[in-house]
Write a structure and sequence with these properties.
Strand order of the largest sheet: 1-32-31-30
Helix content: under 10%
Distance between the termini: 43 Å
Shape: globular
Structural class: mainly beta
Radius of gyration: 20 Å
Number of strands: 32
Amino acid sequence: MDRRTFLTIALAAPAFRQRAKPAAKPAAPTVQVNPQWTQWGGPHRNFHTEASGLKDTWPAAGPRVIWKRPLGEGYSSPAVENGVLYTMYGKPREEIVLAANAETGATLWEHATPMTFQSDAPEQGNGPYATPLVVGDRLFTAGVAGRLQCLEKKTGKLLWTQQLWTDHKGSRLMYGYASSPIAFRETVIVPVGGPGKAVMAFQQADGKVAWGRNDFGNVYSSPLLINVDGLEQLAALMDGAVFAVNPHNGDMQWQVPFKAEYSIAVATPVWGPGNLMFISSEYGGGAKVIRLQRNGSQTSATEVWNSNRLRLHHGNAIRIGDAIYFSSGGKGSQAILSAVDVPSGKIHWQERSIEKASFVWADQKLITLDQDGNLMIAHPSPQGFKISAKAPLLTHLSWTPPALVGTRLYIRDRRTMMAVDLG
C-alpha cells in the first residue's frame, strides 16, 4: 500500500435569546460577529464561520504576517478562544499540548507526556493529528497513541486521563489515533473502536465513563453532532459503516455500510440541507450521499448515490449551497479539486492545477490552503474555481486545515505555525 498517507483529520455556538419587553417588538437574534474556534471544524464543526471583513485581494507579498514560530512535529489544527491558541505537537519520545498567546505566538504553557508510538509512515511524521477541544475552563486533547486528556485551560494542569488503546482496548491504527473529541452537554465523546466500545462518552468533570456502545473498529475520522428534524444524533464514520447514535446513551439510530481498506477513512462526514450527508474516502471507499428522515422517534437512512470515481483522501470537504468542494484522490498521484452536486452526484468540474487542499468558508470567500503551503482566496461555483488572491506562505505537507477568528487566520505546516491578517 501507499506510504504517503496522512491523516488529518459540534456543537454550534449557543444562541442566546433576549427577553423582549411587553410593548416592544421581538428582539432580533443575537449574532456572534467573530465566533471563536474551539474545536475541530470551528464553531459549527463544518469549517463554516460567520467571521467577516476579509479582503478579496492582497499585496504581491501576500497577507500581513502577524507572527510565525517554529513548532514540533505534527498536524494538529489549532483551537482559538479569547486570545489563546491551543494545539499539539510532538518531540522525540514526547507529546506536547501547547497554549500560546494568539496575538504574538508566545508560549503561555506546555504540558508534556511520554509518547513511544511510531507511525507506519515515519517520512510523513508521527502526529499528533487531533484538534484540542475547549469547553468552559477545560481543554480536552487526544494523542496519537490514544491518550484522552483533560487539562485545566488556564494552567495546563492535568485533571484526568483515559487510555483508549490500553484501558479500553480501542483500535490500534497504523498511523496513530487521529479523531478529535466532541462535547455533548456534560460529556466528551470520542470514537474508540472495539466490542461494545465503538464510541464512548466520558464525564467532562472527572473522566468517568458515561457510556460505551456498539462494535465497530475505529478509523481516523472525527464525529459530529447533527439534528434530524428535532432528533439529536452523533454521527460517526468508522470501520465498515457510517452511523449515528443517541448522544445521551449511545443507542444506535441508523447505519449504512461504508468500508475503506486498511481502515483509512479520514474525512469527517458533511451534513447539510435536505438532511443529506456526504461521506468519502480513498482506498476503495469512494463517495456516497445518504438522506436521513425522521419517523417519530426513529430515523431511516437511504443511499441517494455513490461513486468510486470520487475519493477524498484526507483533509476536509466543504458544502456551499448544493455543491460540495474537495480534493479527490491523491493517494499516489496528484489530487483533483472537484465540485459535485450533493443531491445528484453530478460532477460539475474537476481542476488538476490545484494541489491537495483544505478549506474554510467565511464572508462569501473560500479560504484555501494547499499541501505546498499556498494560501488562496477563492470564489467557487458550479461553473468554476476563481482565485482572487494567492501567496506562498508555508512549505510542503501543509495538511492541517486553517482556523479563522475574526480576520486572523492561523495556519501550520509540519513544523511551523503562523498567523496572518486577512482583513
